[in-house]
Amino acid sequence: MLNFSKYHGLGNDFIIIDGRSDNNEDYSKLAKEICHRNLGIGGDGLIIIKESHKNDIRMQIFNIDGSEAPMCGNGIRCFAKYVYENDILCKDSFIVETLAGPVKIRIIKSDGKESIIQANMGKAHYKGEGIPIGDEKGFINKEIVIDDTPIRISTIDLGNIHTVLFVDDLDKVDVDKIGPMIEKHDLFPNKTNVNFCEIIDKQNIKLVTWERGVGKTLACGTGASASAVISTLIHDTDNHITLHLPGGDVDINTENEDVYMTGPAEIICKGIYL
Ligand SMILES: N[C@H](CCC[C@H](N)C(=O)O)C(=O)O
């Protein structure tokens, strides 16, 4: 029997379990079971709270296929709301240890069901494990052929590996077909998250993300952050930009070296998983 809470960030939904007293739980197996939309509680991922010896607290995140992701933007906003509202951390700014490194959190507003939270997503890295080593600019605007069609992709590591491509009309893209073809492309030994972007203007981008180990989601925080970085780099969009996702809007600020993501986190329910 497990006590759980369910939260979402713009429709990217997560099951959160306090694992600070767990010792040998197989979270990969648990994620596959508990995230199942019919046979489990249902969610895009499983988030585990752990003690940290380096920072204030530690977050583990598992995809629905059981793989452990280094970071999760929408997930860390939900995690932050949980630890703040359950008095695990009695302060409105703190640092979360993740596999992608420390993430600075600031609770901007939290007075009930929904909270607004800012996360410092760190710096975008152009080289890293699972990312092909390109020129000094990294893997930017590379032409590959997908489904017999030449496309241009850019891949960066913002805690998670994200591949970004730009389309003229998002509504005409078969994300369910093209997404997995790029996710599992030979270029990416560790697979990749895939972000389909349509630039509206210098301050607004429409985005749909096909997530590694999950599939198409209503929102992706690290995907929004990576898309903002690449869009500024290639299409000279503004440093302060709004990403319009199927589940709602998220603000990304890339004016400093670090990328700041600000968005909502909402509790859905609490319960006991048998
Ligand atoms: N939904 C998450 C991304 C999870 C990334 C995960 N699918 C991976 O394997 O990298 C977000 O809001 O950033």
Automatic annotation (TrEMBL):
EC number(s) on file: 5.1.1.7
One GO process term, biological-process aspect: lysine biosynthetic process via diaminopimelate
Active site: 72 (proton donor), 72, 220 (proton acceptor)
Alphabetized UniProt keyword annotations: Amino-acid biosynthesis, Cytoplasm, Isomerase, Lysine biosynthesis
GO-annotated cellular components: cytosol
Residue positions binding substrate: 12, 63, 73-74, 160, 193, 211-212, 221-222
Enzyme class name: isomerase
Keyword field contains Nuclease: no
Gene3D superfamilies hit by this protein: Diaminopimelate Epimerase, Chain A, domain 1
Subcellular localization, as worded in the UniProt entry: Cytoplasm
Keyword Cell membrane: no
Chief place of localization: cytoplasm
Site annotation Could be important to modulate the pK values of the two catalytic cysteine residues: residues: 162, 211
Protein family membership: Belongs to the diaminopimelate epimerase family.
Protein's job: Catalyzes the stereoinversion of LL-2,6-diaminopimelate (L,L-DAP) to meso-diaminopimelate (meso-DAP), a precursor of L-lysine and an essential component of the bacterial peptidoglycan.
NCBIfam families: DapF
Record-given protein name: Diaminopimelate epimerase
